[in-house]
Design brief:
By secondary structure, the chain is of the alpha+beta class. The chain has helices at residues 2-14, 60-70, 100-105, 108-123, 131-146, 148-153, 176-190, 234-248, 264-276, 282-291, 354-365, 397-415, 424-440, 454-466, 479-495, 504-519, 533-536, 541-555, 567-577, 589-597; strands at residues 29-37, 40-42, 48-51, 95-99, 166-171, 202-204, 231-233, 257-260, 297-304, 313-321, 325-331, 349-353, 371-374, 379-382, 444-445, 450-451. It is elongated and about 115 Å long.
């Protein structure tokens, strides 16, 4: 992987790409280039540029300063002036900078001491055989000690400057190649977790590793058999630094980023798609490449997170081949309903690729908390590695737990084509607990007369039953056909006096139908689907039927007695008289839910208040 990163950065450098300056901006402040007059460095008004919010970024002077800034920028905590912390933003023998805070709060003697320290450190990266570089170093130091602060004291406008306002001074005479030479030497020694000693050639890349330092024992790899990570030389560390800089500062990498092995042009093409339109994420980039006939295989997939210390890679894996299309995945709307809020009607539809699976399936089963759709922006966002706000106002405890447990598996399934990442056990756990959680949190809107979670529950049931065997192909249990057949079978039993209940599945489905019929008689202040939960907690058939019988006792006054049994009476008696073989009724839970949420088989009677 390191080899591929180095190759890619070399490719970008050799292709004269301007990508290394993409999206970079100068900080607010005053920028000055110094030129000689009568043998001395002087400040002229036409050699200065004030940067504010409305500064034109396309002027030659802006580009001039941006080039010099980016090729003299210091690494965090590795400046030439770390102790005094006055000159810490850039570091070069040909330039110096400080903030408004340093200008106002630092004593003159301390500033001079800091200047000495700064240029002493900068001299380490100057080629002692290069007379021009040594001369420029000396001239810059003399200017900093003799003229730099006098300039500010003579200007009234800088006496009340903001603490964050920056001041930058660069020599005009050195070319950008001179700045790059010093910066390269600095980085090749400093882009390590620990600075290289004079006799060392290899170290631990600061961009790949978090140190096992004794001062932070909680960050140590307790079970590792080694004390340090993979070591690289200065050249490699510099390329790694540039790679991560493109990701973090230039922000030209999509997230996740595919880095193709031996196909740098394809990686650059993927980045170009993102650069041209930041609204295009990994999904759109992959689809664009596929539509152009590209063969997506043999690449490293990086997922970055910028708020981390040390390595910002939170996931990295090799993808031998990306499988875009999905075979034989179809969602049947056996539980049909129209949303009271959006008017959206559940319908039969096929899932033809992994990104449709991500948006239409993963988004639904995790309640729009893992894959989030914003109606306002008409866009999706993803929380595969981000922190998730565990606020009960926005997410239930079950949904939060399921996301934390399983989101990495769904990421691997979608983005890395690891079809084995989602197992049948995992899928059944997510769907069962997701539906039960929605039932538990359901509320009834009396004004609009609908159950707030019913659409969500039926949508999940459609997904659950449609994909019931999808992640275990050998499993023979077609829940869609079984639900439809049971509905017809219970109708036959209900209408025919001689027909009897024969199977546990018929018992479970019919029980769901009866429980629904009983619970809609409730006159409680919140007749929600949460009333179903006590029945679903029963594991023994005896207790389950007892709960049904007691509920009937509560609402029997709502039912009319007929000389000849009609559908309700017949099914109720069949349930009470049937002894299931299944000893744990939770194994029949899907079919109980199917019966409850399916269309009712019972005729409506004018005397019943539904």
């Amino acid at each position: 992987m390191i080899h591929e990163i180095v190759q890619f950065i070399e490719y970008l450098e050799n292709s004269n790409s301007e990508i290394f300056s993409e999206n970079l901006e100068l900080k607010e402040g005053l920028y000055v280039f110094l030129e000689k007059e009568n043998g001395e460095l002087v400040i002229k008004d036409d050699n200065t540029l004030k940067i504010g919010k409305d500064t034109d970024k396309n002027t030659p002077l802006y580009v001039y300063f941006l080039e010099r800034y980016t090729n003299s920028e210091m690494l965090i905590n590795k400046s030439f002036n770390a102790n005094e912390k006055i000159f810490i933003d850039i570091g070069s023998s040909f330039g110096i900078s400080f903030s408004g805070k340093g200008l106002k709060q630092t004593e003159r003697n301390k500033k001079y001491s800091a200047i000495e320290a700064y240029f002493k450190a900068a001299l380490e990266y100057v080629d002692k055989k290069n007379e021009r570089h040594l001369t420029w170093h000396k001239e810059m130091k003399i200017f900093a000690k003799t003229k730099m602060f006098d300039f500010f004291e003579s200007k009234e406008e800088y006496k009340e400057v903001k603490a964050a306002y920056m001041f930058y001074f660069f020599l005009k005479e050195p070319k950008i190649s001179d700045f790059k030479e010093l910066h390269r030497k600095y980085l090749s020694r400093k882009v390590f977790l620990f600075d290289l000693k004079k006799n060392e050639t290899h170290g631990i890349s600061n961009d790949l590793t978090v140190g096992n330092v004794s001062k932070k024992p909680f960050m140590r790899h307790k079970t590792a058999s080694f004390e340090i990570n993979y070591k690289v030389d200065g050249y490699t560390a510099l390329k790694l630094y540039k790679f991560f800089r493109l990701q973090q500062k230039n922000k030209v990498f999509p997230n996740p980023l595919p880095l193709f092995v031996d196909r740098n042009e394809l990686t650059k093409k993927a980045i170009s798609i993102y650069k041209n339109d930041h609204k295009k994420g990994h999904k759109e980039i992959i689809e664009d490449l596929i539509n152009k006939g590209e063969n997506l295989q043999n690449y490293y997939l990086f997922y970055f997170q910028n708020n981390l210390k040390g390595s910002r890679i939170v996931d990295l894996d090799f993808v031998p081949a990306f499988k875009y299309e999905i075979d034989n995945m179809q969602i049947k709307a056996v539980f049909n309903i129209k949303s009271k809020e959006t008017g959206y009607l559940l319908y039969d539809h096929k899932i033809i690729n992994v990104f449709e699976f991500q948006q239409k399936i993963v988004g639904k089963i995790f309640n729009n908390s893992l894959v989030q759709f914003s109606q306002k922006n008409n866009s999706y966002s993803y929380k595969y590695f981000d922190d998730i706000d565990n606020n009960p106002k926005y997410i239930t405890s079950n949904t939060y737990t399921q996301i934390i447990k399983y989101r990495k598996s769904f990421y691997d399934y979608i983005y890395k084509s690891k079809r084995q990442a989602i197992t049948d056990t995992m899928f059944q756990d997510i769907m069962k607990n997701g539906v039960l959680d929605d039932i538990r949190h359901d509320e009834y809107d009396k004004e609009k007369k609908y159950h707030k979670k019913e659409f969500q529950i039926k949508e999940k049931l459609n997904i659950w039953f449609s994909l019931y065997t999808y992640f275990t192909p050998k499993k023979d249990n077609d829940m869609i056909n079984k639900t439809e057949n049971l509905f017809q079978r219970i109708k036959v039993i209900a209408k025919n006096e001689k027909e009897r209940m024969r199977t546990d599945e018929e018992f479970a489905f019919a029980s769901g139908q009866i429980i629904w019929k009983l619970l809609i008689q409730s006159k409680s202040s919140n007749p929600s689907h949460a009333l179903l939960e006590p029945f679903l907690q029963k594991t023994e058939a005896k207790l389950f039927k007892l709960a049904i019988a007691r509920t009937f006792e509560m609402y029997k006054h709502e039912f009319t007695l007929y000389p000849v049994k009609y559908e309700f009476d017949k099914i109720f008696s069949e349930i009470m008289g049937y002894e299931p073989d299944e000893t744990n009724l939770k194994n029949l839970l899907p079919l109980i839910l199917a019966g409850y949420f399916s269309e009712t088989i019972f005729k409506k009677d004018k005397t019943e208040n539904e």
